[in-house]
Every structure is written in C-alpha cells, then in structure tokens.
UniProtKB/TrEMBL annotation:
This is HSP40. GO terms for biological process: protein folding. It comes from Paracyclopina nana (Marine copepod). Pfam families: DnaJ_C, DnaJ_CXXCXGXG. It is a lipid-anchor.
Length: 352
C-alpha cells in the first residue's frame, strides 16, 4: 500500500490532502490539511495503522548502569550477589502529582511551554531570537503551589529510595557481560521506568589469567625438575587439587607450554563443557654451584663444544649487563656534555 501511494501521483495527492482515511475512502474527506510525507512510513514502520499516527511506543526514563566487581572464582562457580543502589520512586503520598488537588499550576513565566524566548539585537536591522529552558519551572511548563505541595516529596513527585538487587552471576560469565533488570530504573510520572543494567567487572587473579574459556597460569620449576622430571599440585578455582607430572628423562624447557583439557573455564549456559588449563613453564637456574662438583656434573651432562682457538687471541672478561641502567648512564653522559658546551646563562659557546 505504501508503494502504491508513493508511486501513484493521484493517490499521493489524495494522501497529502486527506491522509490514510482518504485513500481507504477513495479520495473522500479525511482529517483535512496537509500531512507530513513521512507519516506513511510511520504508519507502516513506526507503530501501526492508526490513521498516520507517529506512535513509537511509550517514552521511558534513562537506563541506569552499575558496575559489579566479581572474582574469577565467582565466574567459575557461579554465585548470587546483592547490590544496593539508589533510584527514584513515584511518591506514594501524592501519587506523583506533587501535591494536593489543584496544586499543579501552569507556569506563568513561560505560559506552560517550558521555554523562554528573548530577542537580542545584533546590529541595525539584525535581530537574533534565543530560546532557552525556563528557569522558573525547569522546563516542566508547570509549578506546584507551595501551599498545597506534598510534604513527603516536597513537590518533586518522586522520592529517592534504596533498592536491593540480587544479581545472578552464572558459571562462565565474562568480563564486561551485562545483566539487565527490566523496568527497575528510575520512575517518573507519565514515563515508563527504564532498565537497570549491571556490568560485570572481573577482578585480577593472582594465579590464573583468563583467555575466553581457557585458563592460563605460569609455573616455575628448578633445573633439577626440568631435567629429571617433577610432580606438582595445582589448586583449581573450585578448590580441587590437580596433580601434574613429567617422567624421568622428559626435559622441560623455559617457555614450554602444556595443557590439561577440561580444566579451564566453564562455557556460559553450558557449564559442563570446559576449556583448557594452559601451563607456561619457567625454569629457574641456581645463582652458582660449587666448583668442586662441576667436573662431576659435567660428566652427567652432554659434552661441551670445544672451540678452535687461534694462536693469536685475546682473553676478555664478561660483566653483568642491565639495559635500563645502561640507558640511564648514557642520558647522564649526554647531559654532562651539554653542560660542558653551554656558556653562561645556558648559551652555547662558539666552537671552531
């Protein structure tokens, strides 16, 4: 029907003159007067066939956003958290009117429009019209008679009340995931309440780091465990104990990755399916060993590579190197050079 009206010049003229009813009656009398060309789109896409109306659903108050800090254990096991917050509730004493019967008056300052208009002269024959919100009624277009004002809400129509929400944190929920409480937002006369949206904020865990449904942890082992095998205990997020081990002869190197299937995070809404537990190893070497046992240790380890040393050579000493300390020292040296070349007052001396 929309296509037929827009594509037919006669029907479009009838609709402009008489609206949707004019189309249905074959050009008969309708509402009279011109309609917006967008009304026909509103009729089909914006809220029904109510004679070209622009209804798009009731107006609502703004949604309220709150952040809830949760631990990785709570996201793993699931929990229910109580959250206390403040919200506006329509005054029960005056039913959101603001006072007794007859208390609501049209604002005399803006005559009920909620806006004030003032004219400012910019120059000869040039005027500027400035529209601003009425300061008397704060843009409401009405005010409450002080004598009839509600004592509980003081004419504000709403009161601030404390609300306790029980937030269900399901197994496998993620950082930033939202839990919505529909219609629990601020109340305001004439408007539907919006939603309260709780945003989960995952706290950092000392052992595990999350990557989707996988859990990642670092484990430090010493050189003996790396070369000769080890057995280690891991405490899970639900307080179970896992034993991992390597066999004798299995060498673990620094940055090696191992995984245990089914010991990661539970999948949201499918908690019996879990991701992987990924373990990254870090091999810790001793600061030094007894020189007397070095020859014995050398016999047990793979042979050293003997270099070809020419007759003409130099032996040098190696020192510990700290890149950060080296950068600081170079900056100090550069600053000293600048001061040496700078004259009185910071002016550089001419050099030849």
């Amino acid at each position: 029907m929309a296509y037929e009206v827009l594509s037919n010049e006669d029907k479009r003229r009838v609709y402009d003159m008489h609206g949707e009813q004019g189309i249905k009656e074959g050009g008969g009398g309708g509402s009279g007067g011109l309609h917006s060309p967008m009304d026909i789109f509103d009729m089909f896409f914006g809220g029904g066939f109510g004679g070209g109306g622009r209804s798009r659903g009731p107006r609502r108050t703004k949604n309220l956003m709150h952040q809830l800090s949760v631990s990785l254990e709570e996201m793993y096991n699931g929990t229910t958290r109580k959250l206390a917050l403040q919200k506006n509730v329509i005054c029960a004493d005056c039913d959101g009117i603001g006072g007794k019967e007859g208390a609501v008056q049209r604002c005399p300052n803006c005559r009920g429009t909620g806006m004030q208009v003032r004219v400012q002269q910019l120059g000869p024959g040039m005027m500027q019209q400035i529209q601003s919100m009425c300061g008397e009624c704060q843009g409401q277009g009405e005010r409450i008679d002080p004598k009839l004002r509600c004592k509980k809400c003081n004419g504000r129509k709403v009161n601030r009340e404390r609300k306790i929400l029980e937030v269900a944190v399901d197994k496998g929920m993620e950082d930033g995931q939202k839990v919505t409480f529909s219609g629990e937002g601020d109340q305001e006369p004439g408007l539907e309440p919006g939603d309260i949206i709780i945003v989960l904020d995952e706290k950092e865990h000392p052992t595990f780091k999350r990557n989707g449904v996988d859990l990642i942890m670092k484990m430090t082992i010493n050189i003996t465990e790396a070369l000769c095998g080890f057995k280690k205990a891991i405490t899970t997020l639900d307080n179970r104990t896992l034993i991992i081990q390597t066999i004798a002869g299995e060498v673990t190197k620094s940055s090696d990755l191992k995984c245990v299937y089914g010991e990661g995070m539970p999948t949201y809404r499918n908690p019996f399916e879990k991701g992987k537990l990924i373990i990254q190893f870090d091999v810790e070497f001793p600061e030094s060993i007894d020189a007397a046992i070095a020859p014995q240790l050398e016999k047990l380890l793979p042979p050293k590579e003997e270099p070809m040393i020419p007759e003409d050579h130099e032996e040098v000493n190696m020192q510990d190197f700290d890149p950060e300390a080296d950068r600081r020292q170079r900056r100090l040296n550069e600053d000293d050079e600048e001061h040496m070349h700078a004259g009185p007052g910071g002016v550089s001396c001419a050099t030849q």
